[in-house]
Amino acid sequence: MQKIKIQGGNTLTGTINISGAKNSAVALIPAAILCDETATIFNVPNISDTAALNEILVYLGADVKRDGETMIIDSSKITNKEIPEGISKKLRASYYFMGALLGKYKKVEMYFPGGCSIGERPINLHLKAFEMLGATVKSESNKYIVEADELIGTEIYLDIASVGATINIMLAAAKAKGTTIIDNAAKEPEIVNVATFLNNMGAKITGAGTSEIKIVGVEKLKKCMHEVIPDRIEAGTYIIAGALMGEKLKINNVIPEHVDSLISKLKEMGVKIIEGTDYFIITKSEKLKPTNIKTLVYPGFPTDLQQPITTLLTQCSGTSKVQETIWENRFQNIEYLNKMGSNIKVNGDKATIVGPTKLTGCEVRATDLRAGACLVLAGLAAEGTTTIENVEHILRGYEQIIQKLTNVGAKIELV
Ligand code: EPU
Fold it and tell me: How many domains does the chain have?
């Protein structure tokens, strides 16, 4: 079993280049099968989640070429067959094959997706939307069969502005008959990226990035080229690393607007930040003010940075509060932060952090992806050696994390 070992206390300086966004790439790859020709996607991060989707494409018979960060997907010869549990459960985003296969073949058979255990993670909104588009949904134990004679556009109101449901509806509706409207759609940048990709293929989607998305179904989608946006959560994680240990640490290839909520919090806390057109330069401050954070849908503070920023809150002078409103089980990192010396109490969906506390390296476990990122950050700031178990969670989402941090002065290795 692989572990990450960090010798803490080293200053981070130099440049970290941000990779393509995991949560965009994992939707774009399944979306590529909607065209019958070749889709070329640039800036695809080399992480185990994209490798797992590649495996599903190959299983379905797509011809996939991968050259560094470029993926060329030819889906002209794919066969629509059941996606077995062994490959669907490797990641959450395998569920985008539901929307894509349903949209293309009007039928999909697959097992319930996997992913981090950060909450119950139902897919009721996805399934309800497929039904509203005219499909029937059958579930047998863990397997779903969704099929339709034809998909017909309709108005779909989402009870929750779900990222996954919004994308899955766009995938299913892109080739449906007539017009689909998504009300209370999610507004995350990854949704805009997927809509742009589909439009490049010839889809007619407007309103992505707002709470009302309109999809006018088209008959055919054609070959296209597209680029994955920079990963705002990876960027945010390294920006926080800079706030903890940085000396002019440059985080490069960022869309600043995508991390507005984080940057405004860090400024409020007293972190020294220089902002460029596509970069930030971060330097650690001697004294940080405490703050309160409530996770919200975009453009609010992202749940995916809630665990990473908690590490920084342990270094603030005073009491900070965090409220997690998206996932029910996203405080599993706290047990390990406290083992390292922090003073955090969790009560339901709220955590209270009293700082500053000295962090000391010890053995900890990455219970999920962002909990893992939180512990990497804690390890960088701690005195002594931190050993993180279950690192496969971290490697699912952070491209070349060891190399990127080593390049800027961290003592970190995979053992
Ligand atoms: N929800 C339902 N029913 C549904 C769908 C969602 O009740 O059918 C609930 C969820 O249980 C959750 C809330 O709605 O409480 C929001 O879920 P959403 O569907 O927006 O999340 P997701 O699409 O499953 C994506 C990211 C997550 C990120 C969330 C929120 C991907 C592959 N995953 O998940 O990323 O936390 O949006 O921004 O895009 C991560 O990268 O670490 C990660 C977990």
Answer: 2
My answer on whether 213 and 250 are in the same domain is no
Residue 157: give the domain boundaries: 22-227
For ligand 1, the distance from its centroid to the CA atom of residue 164, given in whole angstroms, is 6
Q: What pLDDT digit, counting tens, does each position of 154-184 carry?
A: 999 999 999 999 999 999 999 999 999 999 9
296 CA distance to ligand 1 middle (Å): 12
Last residue of a domain, one of 209, 227, 245: 227
Looking at the fold, whether 405 and 305 belong to one and the same domain comes out as: yes
| End-to-end CA, the chain | 9
Which tokens in the block code for residue 35?
């065209």
Taking only the tens place, the pLDDT of each residue in 34-81 is 998 999 999 999 999 999 999 999 999 999 999 999 999 999 999 999
Ligand 1 near 92 CB (within 6 A) = yes
E-only strand ranges, 44-189:
63-67, 70-74, 107-111, 136-140, 143-147, 155-157, 179-183
Catalytic status, residue 116: yes
